[in-house]
Amino acid sequence: MADSLPLIVRHLGLCEYSQSFADMKAFNEQRDASTADEIWFLEHQPVFTQGQAGKAEYVLMPGDIPVVKSDRGGHVTYHGPGQITAYLLIDLKRLKLGVRDLVSLIEQALVETLQKWEISASPRRDAPGVYTADGQKIASLGLRIRKGCSYHGLNFNVSMDMSAWQRINPCGLSVPMTQIADLVDEPPSIETVTEVLAALLAKGLGYNGYVTGSNQIVVN
């Protein structure tokens, strides 16, 4: 079970990537043993981000969408409105979790979320993320661990403009991308999907629920 500290979930709305990136790093640097774990749910303004394994040739035609270097794991990915981005700011040492444990529980939470809409999906052993039964990628993962704590997290395609994915080789894989809206007759709202995913992530981390925090981030 998780520590007696609560899990705090924040819903931050539409955010600019570079500011969120800076806020995550600041939060991680300032936290200590008394700091509660947090998950930040948000959508980003259109941006391509390059992880530590990113290669320039995977960015095919960025056009007017900025490309930002990130310190997360993985290759290039796309963030945009209509996609859930969740940043998991978790003290792995306190929860006695390894990095592989964290990746697996994130993937399982995504798989179970998709099951709510009768979408069959699973992770791949050779590439983090979640893929539909026909091999399309619907969610991406990228984490950074520093001082025993995680930041960055996941992208989950719900109902977005998918054309931007054609401008990159997502995550260094030649796989088609998909989203919930293209797989169901009545697409759910991003808020509804977020609510389901938040509960499953909290459960996977060992928390008995969560508390909702402010929709503003204040770091010194």
Helix and strand topology:
Elements: E1 8-15, H1 17-30, E2 38-44, E3 47-50, E4 67-69, E5 76-79, E6 83-89, H2 92-95, H3 99-115, E7 121-124, E8 127-132, E9 137-146, E10 149-157, H4 190-205, E11 211-212
Parallel strand pairs: 1-2, 1-11, 3-4
Antiparallel strand pairs: 2-6, 3-5, 6-10, 7-8, 8-9, 9-10
Helix pairs in contact: 3-4
Give the key terms:
BirA Bifunctional Protein, domain 2, 23% helix, alpha/beta, 220 residues, 11 strands
Question: What would your notes on this structure say?
Answer:
With 220 residues, the protein is an alpha/beta fold. The chain has one domain: 2-Layer Sandwich (BirA Bifunctional Protein, domain 2), CATH 3.30.930. 23% of the residues lie in helices and 29% in strands. Strands 7-8-9-10-6-2-1-11 form an eight-stranded mixed beta sheet, with helices on both faces. It has a three-stranded mixed beta sheet with strand order 4-3-5, with no helix packed on it. The longest helix is centred in the middle third of the chain and has 17 residues. It is globular and about 45 Å long. It starts with 7 loop residues before the first strand and ends in an 8-residue tail after the last strand.
